[in-house]
């Protein structure tokens, strides 16, 4: 009798790092961390110490704690926007690809209109009109990425809607809704999952850019974009205030991109073979 053992491979590193990042971000409020808003003006720009491993910022706040909560805020906004965009975009794409005709034309023309606007400018316009903050930022970013999910779902449905298993379910008298969301949707989930992971990575960058411009997360709440903006303003006094958030943002994007690549290879063996050649 032989036993099976779990083997660790380098390809799994991004997944483990992302899982660790998500766990720390989700548990940040209950971890024994200092209040990210607690100020100690007497220790402004203090260097690393046993109590403050990354030092303190211009208001004496713990930089490491603020980085953890900034990552938490970025991931919450990114995942919420990606989930909302995925639900709306997938529903539109499946409906358009399965129904065809007028429904397909209206849905895809709407998507073309949204794609006419650059994502950053569209997000800036909406946030400027309705005010900054996560409540505005999440639906705005979701609208920006709805077309991506719609196009992926639409193309995938067109490739499977005439398959034998779909025709078999339809011939059994199943309703259109059941055929679309119980038969077709599970069989096109692979590309949509990859699109979701990619959207999360892009949304993190977009949220940080908007926060850097003052149109995202509002101070004093920690945000990577806000911390980068503050670090740039105090570069002469404390250059590490700029280095730490830039390094955290870069590391998170690299982890997310590596995870997206690995997930794409696992869900699409053809891409893995092509990359291996």
UniProtKB/TrEMBL annotation:
Organism in which the protein naturally occurs: Aliirhizobium cellulosilyticum
UniProt protein name: Peptide/nickel transport system permease protein
Matching PANTHER family: OLIGOPEPTIDE TRANSPORT SYSTEM PERMEASE PROTEIN APPC, PEPTIDE ABC TRANSPORTER PERMEASE PROTEIN
Domain ABC transmembrane type-1: 71-260
GO cellular component, one term: plasma membrane
Coarse class of the protein's main subcellular location: membrane
Membrane spanning residue stretches: 75-98, 110-131, 137-158, 241-259
Family indicated by similarity: Belongs to the binding-protein-dependent transport system permease family.
UniProt membrane topology term: Multi-pass membrane protein
Location in or out of the cell: Cell membrane
BP-aspect Gene Ontology terms: transmembrane transport
Family annotation (InterPro entries): BP-dependent_transpt_permease (IPR050366), MetI-like (IPR000515), MetI-like_sf (IPR035906)
Keyword terms of this UniProt record: Cell membrane, Membrane, Transmembrane, Transmembrane helix, Transport
């Amino acid at each position: 009798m032989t036993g099976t053992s779990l083997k660790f491979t380098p390809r799994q590193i991004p997944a483990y790092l992302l899982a660790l990042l998500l766990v720390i971000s989700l548990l940040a409020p209950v971890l024994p961390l200092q209040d990210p808003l607690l100020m100690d003006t007497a220790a402004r720009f203090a260097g690393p110490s046993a109590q403050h491993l990354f030092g303190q910022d211009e208001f004496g706040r713990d930089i490491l704690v603020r980085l953890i909560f900034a990552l938490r805020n970025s991931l919450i906004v990114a995942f919420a926007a990606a989930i909302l965009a995925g639900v709306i975009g997938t529903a539109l794409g499946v409906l358009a690809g399965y129904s065809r005709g007028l429904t397909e034309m209206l849905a895809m023309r709407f998507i073309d209109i949204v794609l006419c606007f650059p994502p950053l400018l569209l997000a800036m316009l909406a946030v400027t009109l309705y005010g900054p903050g996560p409540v505005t930022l999440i639906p705005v970013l979701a609208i920006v990425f709805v077309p991506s999910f719609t196009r992926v779902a639409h193309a995938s449905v067109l490739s499977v809607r005439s398959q034998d298993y779909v025709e078999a379910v339809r011939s059994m008298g199943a309703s259109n809704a059941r055929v679309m969301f119980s038969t077709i949707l599970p069989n096109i989930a692979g590309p949509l999952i990859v699109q979701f992971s990619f959207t999360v990575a892009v949304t993190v960058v977009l949220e940080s850019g908007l926060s850097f411009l003052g149109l995202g997360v509002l101070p004093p709440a920690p945000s990577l974009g806000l911390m980068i903006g503050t670090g740039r303003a105090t570069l002469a006094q404390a250059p590490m205030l700029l280095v730490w958030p830039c390094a955290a943002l870069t590391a998170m994007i690299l982890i997310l991109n590596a995870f997206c690549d690995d997930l794409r290879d696992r869900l699409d063996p053809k891409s893995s073979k092509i990359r291996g050649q």
